[in-house]
Give the backbone structure.
Amino acid sequence: MLQPCQTCPLRRQPAFQPMTEAEVAFMQRFKATDRIIAPGTVLIWEGQSSPWLYTVLRGQGLRVKQMEDGQRQVLNFIFPGDFIGLQAAIMGEMKHTVEATTEMTLCVFPRADLWSLFRDQPARAYDLTYITAAEEHFLGDALATIGQRTAIERMAWALWRLWRRAEAVGLLRDGAAPLPWRQRDLADAVALSLVHTNKTLARLRQAGLADWHDGWLRLPGRARLAELAQVEDRPADPRPLF
């Protein structure tokens, strides 16, 4: 069933800025359909062009850069509200792969109509610029984390950020955040070996800072974890929802 933009559950979440009635009406006209994909499905391959743009309505996934030697770098973890496919729309092809970890429901928009947004909805076009700038900021922070933080600081930063992202889109259950990924995914994101990742997670658990178990993350020592990660323990500022 098509999810009307007027009743989109993401609009109620603290992660996102409010939209005007005119913006909501435009997004409803812009939207083509909803699509449900199964866990493990690749939505867009690296090097592929796509006629569609997507907003994640439900589910979680990964953005992955595949290396020629078979290794990979997890660039980011996908949550509800994330916008997918803009890189292919602007550059002609994706420079990384997007894959579903859980079942995902996607709002689908035609790439061919993107230019009408810049022509007719400049405020919405600016929102795309904001989203792109926020992604650039995250990648800079991630690069600094991999290059300058210790293993336990990297893990603290990653877990704290994933928990906060889940909180911001209403995914917490009894204070726990869903983390459906594998330890290998987290290891690839913070540039640690799987063995080192396992040992680092055990250290955080033994210290009472973080416990990732059965796909759920609990942070009994969140404030101390944030201090270890060298971040201020507060929610991120609301961003546009596209």
